Amino acid sequence: MKAPASISLPFAVAILLIPASFAWSYFHDAATQDGPSHLAAAKIANDWVMQSLGNTRPGAVFETYRLQFEPVPNWSGQALGMALCATLPIHLAEILMNLAGVWIPAMSLAWLVVSIRNAGSTDESEWAGTIFHALWISTLATNVLWTFGFTSFLLGLGMAWFFLGRLLVFARSGGCFRWFTLTLFWCATFVCHLVAFAIGGVIAGCLLLFYPGWSIARRVAIAVSLGCAAPLWLRYRNLTGGSAFEPIWEHLSGSELLSVSNWARQFGWIDPLSLHTKSWHPFTGDIGAKGLAFQPGVWIAVASSAVVFEALRRRFIGIRNDISKSEVTNRIPGGAGHFEAEKSGEPLNSPKRIARFAASIRQRRLPEWFGFVVAGSILAILGTIGPDSLGAQQGHYLPQRFCLAALCLVPLILSTVQCRVSSISTGFLAIAWVLQTAGAIDFARSSHHLTQPVRAEADSIHPGDRILALIDAVPWPYRSNPRLHADALLVQGADDVASWNLYEAAHPYFPLRFRSMVPEMEPAALEAYSLAVTRNDPAIAEQELDSILSAAEGRATVVAILTDRSSPRRIQAEKVLSQRAAWRKVTSGPECLIYRGIE
Is residue 276 a contact partner of residue 266, using CB atoms and an 8 Å limit? Predict the structure, then answer.
């Protein structure tokens, strides 16, 4: 039984994404790690626009931030968040922002796979191939980068898949309008996200070099299209002050390259799929070695091994049959091989025959999958041994992004290599999808219970407030920690609210920027205090907190302590604040303690 590939694959992906999407809609207070911060920045940006246009009086937002309308990366998440916040209630806007990071990259990749399958000669519309690709894409859709809340990157990755689809269309058909749209989507990928732009560039460059059948004129036109984004890059470098590239490895130790534990730690870190720690059992909360059986990455590796084994087996059988036919033809008197040998009168090892054989090899085209394999190999190598960041002022989590992109290339490779997947590999992949979907649902449930008490305190925030948050980001079984930026949930409580913890306003690759920052109140310093990266000595920690509160007087109107009741951080903060006459306690919830400045 067969189905049209152009309909069945996106439809199958959509069906498989419904369970996780429903859970994130049902647990309406669920939040990703950075997602609330991005939505808070979008809400603040809307307030800034209204105040700058004179529709409302300039207040805390206009005095604290500025919005740069330059084509900097990360505008995709900013623009989407601003549009949703302007048209929908805040809780619906956050749900849609979360789901956009799942659906847009997945559906864009499904569309690209369909485009490749329809353009090729392979008949991959069989249900087995469609289900395998749908399971693969939907499993990758609920990745750890999504739970981190990296919305702009995921939107940029979706744009990169769409750009590659337009590139293949232009390479086949040409035309000035197609070239213009190709260039437009390439520049849009840059504005979406810088790492997604780099990933798209690696894949496009490999296709430009190795994809067969393209004319020289088409390759030159594609190269010119890629080069049209150079002014955007140069402008971005000027905006960021030409910050130097200083690669940082946070987990891979170069001095322990032969250590098994070193590589085990590295592979556990770069894994873009595991939502929770490797030894933790979802739902039950048990800890043990059996937790590896609940890791989707393990089952994806098993499924991939089954696909490779099946492909090699079929290839070996095909080669053996070809050899058998060749031997029969050459040994039969009067056969093609015998006739050619008699006609030429040349031995098989003569220089002329070797030269003709070499010429025939040179005339053979590279397979269509070769460019995708090279690109996937480059991305996998970058993800495995590459740095976590290119500098303190650059983006982090590069290995997970490159590894995720490399995994996304698998259905593209299978679509061009004309490889049929077995039911065994599809079964293993189905297990990975079940585990990944279950992990996403459990994370939504846990995140809902974690952030709900903080959201309940948002009513205590007034228009014009400037918030300074002291957070105790206690580790928990999941790799993503929504508590880390829980202060952004309070920004949603009223209009014209600013937050000194808004980390993206301190980086040049986001549209929203602080007008000026105080060293003690820089988001990086506040996050270091929250994570207890600095010394754990109580006296030193108390001194650091006192320095933060001294800088906050006159600059912040609200101090929010986001911890549970038993946290040492909360006890310490209450002690220090009680000794300062400038602050008074207004709420005392189980997860949120709010002090307001005395005017």
Answer: no
Residue 125 DSSP class: -
For residue 159, give Cα distances in angstroms to 131, 153, 182, 199, 414. Answer: 24, 10, 11, 11, 21
Rounded Cα gap, residues 380 and 150, in angstroms: 20
What gap in Å lies between CA 545 and CA 541, rounded to an integer?
A: 6
Q: Which residues contact 580 (CB under 8 A, 6 or more apart)?
A: 549
Task: Quote the Cα angle for 281-285-287, to 5°.
Answer: 60
DSSP 496: S
* 518-526 own/partner pairs: CB under 8 Å, 24+ apart: 518/551, 518/555, 519/551, 520/547, 520/548, 520/550, 520/551, 521/468, 521/548, 521/551, 521/552, 521/555, 521/556, 526/468, 526/469, 526/470, 526/471, 526/500, 526/501
Q: Cα angle vertex 129, ends 291, 136, to 5°?
A: 30
How sure is the predictor about 315, in pLDDT bands with cuts at 50, 70 and 90? low
Distance from the Cα of residue 471 to its chain's centroid:
25
Structure tokens given for 583: 């602050």
Q: Tell me which residue of 522, 559, 267 sits closest to 400, measured CA to CA.
A: 267
| Spatial CA neighbour of 236 closest among 184, 182, 193 | 193
Angle at alpha carbon of residue 199, lines to 116 and 238, rounded to 5°: 140
As a whole number of angstroms, the distance between CA 217 and CA 542 comes to: 67
The residue behind tokens 């079929």 is 314
What DSSP string runs through 17-57?
A: HHHHHHHHHHSTT---SSHHHHHHHHHHHHHHHHHHTTSS-
What residue has token string 């920045």? 41
Place of tokens 């998440």: 77
Q: What is the pLDDT of residues 346-400, one digit of tens each?
A: 555 566 655 655 555 455 677 888 999 999 999 999 999 988 887 766 778 999 9
DSSP state of 348: T
Within 13 Å of residue 343, how many CA atoms lie on the same side as its CB? 8
What is the reported pTM? 0.87
What is the C-alpha to C-alpha distance for residues 269 and 273, in angstroms, rounded to an integer?
Answer: 10
Pairing of strands 593-597, 558-562: antiparallel
Distance of CA 548 to the CA centre of its chain: 33
Distance CA 135, CA 208 (A): 29
Q: How confident is the model at residue 18 (pLDDT cuts 50, 70, 90)?
A: very high
d(CA 415, CA 417): 6
pLDDT exceeds cutoff 50 at 337: no
At 369 the pLDDT is 87
Q: What are phi and psi of 596, to 5 degrees?
A: -120, 140
Do 5 and 118 contact (CB within 8 A), yes or no? yes
> What is the residue type of 82?
M
Q: What DSSP element (H or E) covers 219? A: helix 216-227
Beta strands in 346-456 (DSSP E): none
- Closest to 126 in 3D by CA, of 1, 303, 311, 310: 1
Residues 6+ apart with CB under 8 A from 199: 157, 160, 379, 401, 402, 405
